[in-house]
Amino acid sequence: MVIKVFLASSSGSTAIKKKQQDVLGFLEALKIEYAQLDIASNEENRMWMRENVPGDMKPSNGIPLPPQIFNEENYCGDYETFFNAKEENSVYEFLGLTPPPGFKKVSPTEEEVQDGEEEGEYDREEEELRQLECNNISGALHDRNKKSQSVRKSLKKSQSMRRMKRLGGRRREKKQKRQRTNPPSQSSTTVQHEVSPSHPLWQSLLKTTSKTCTIVQEMSHHNPGEIVQMTEF
Q: Are 125 and 117 in contact (CB under 8 A)?
């Protein structure tokens, strides 16, 4: 038995082309032999398809649209019934074929269990992805907080340095202003020289005084009257 698929090779409808490709691709995946019958280039194929599609399967205008599926002369259905059979895992029954050895039809209960397992796995994967995103966000926030703290420390340090520079500048300005306003006096300089025994002037004064005292002593031994006259003068 050969499965016949009536289709339109030159259809301008994108939906019809997609449905035809879906049917042919699924039959090829199951390795089911089929024959393509083009109704666009063959009038006989178009007329035969319209005559053999049951009346209850025809649209309101009476013209069935491709793809239409037959098993030899027996009508199987259109794309909608084919799609439902594929979803229910009953394509072989839909086509009137015997399933191959090892084919196992999934019962509704098993389908529900499988769907539940798939949903549970999907939920776990979604939860893992969500947790991973949360971890990434937390890591990014942690890194950003570290950078913010480092920036704050740098700002505080630079502000402290600028403040210290301003204070140092103000102190220097005040000191210079005081020096301009109150210059050091000569008396203070003189006092400083008198206080310092090692100053050259102080040493010179000591030498001169010592010589004077020596001369006076010598004169007092030779002519005491001159000393008295010098004292009175």
A: no
Instruction: Give the C-alpha separation, 25 to 10, whole Å.
Output: 18
Say if CB 71 and CB 3 are below 8 A apart.
Answer: yes
Tokens in use for 71? Answer: 């098993």
Tokens at 179, concatenated: 């020096």
Q: Are the C-beta atoms of residues 54 and 75 closer than 8 Å to each other?
A: yes
Instruction: Band the pLDDT of 123: cuts 50, 70, 90.
Output: confident
Alpha carbon of residue 154 to chain centroid? 24
Q: Which carries the bigger pLDDT value, residue 138 or residue 189?
A: 138
Whether residue 91 contacts residue 79, with contact meaning beta carbons closer than 8 Å, is answered with: no
pTM beyond 0.85: the answer is: no
In this structure, what are the phi and psi dihedrals at residue 66, rounded to the nearest 5 degrees? -75, 155
Distance (Å, whole) CA 167 – CA 160: 11
Task: Dump pLDDT digits (tens) for 100-113.
Answer: 887 776 655 555 55
